[in-house]
What we know:
Layout: H1 2-34, H2 40-59, H3 70-91, H4 108-193
Helix pairs in contact: 1-2, 1-4, 2-3, 3-4
Amino acid sequence: MASTHLHLFPLVLRSTQAILSLTSLILYATALASSPDEDSAYIYALVCCTITLLTLVIYSIPSFPTRKFFLWDFAVAVLWAALSGYFGMIFLEHDGEVQSGDDRGANKTAMKAAVGVDLVVMVCWVMSCLLGCVGYCRAKLQARRQRKVDKEAGKMLEGQEQGVVEAEWDDEDGECEKGLMGEKSEKKSAGKGV
C-alpha cells in the first residue's frame, strides 16, 4: 500500500504543477491584455508558464527518464522564484497591501492571487527536483551495487572454474605418476627376473 502512495505522489505533483501553471498563464495573459503598455515582466511570466507546460508535456512521455533531469526541475523552480519575487515586490508590501503607484494597470486582486499561485508552483518544482535527485542517486547506487555483486559473482565463478581445472590437472598428474611408477616397477621386476 505504501508503494502505491510513493508512485502516486509524483503524478499528483506533476498534475498540480500543470493546473497551477495553466492558471498562472491565464492570469498573466489577462493582465497583459488589460495593461495599457506591454510590460516585459508579463511577457517573462508568459514565457515561464509556457516553458513549464512544455516541460510537463515532455515529462508525460512514458519512456522519458525524468529523474535524470532533476537539474532542469531546479532551473524551472528558479524561474518561478524570480517570477513570484518580482511580482510580489510590485503588488505586495510586507503588510499585504498593494503598493501605490505601481499597479501596472492590472487587476490587483488577480495579481495577488497570481503571486500566491507562483509561490506554490515554485515549491512544487523544488519538491520534484528533490524527488528526482533522490531517485537518480538511488538508481546510481543500485547500479553500483549490482556491478559490484556481478563482479564478485564473476570472480567466484572464475575461481570455481580455476578449481575445476586445477583438480583436472591434479588428476592427470596423479595418473601420469601412477603410470610412471608402474612402468618403473615393471622394469625393476623384469631386471630382477633376468
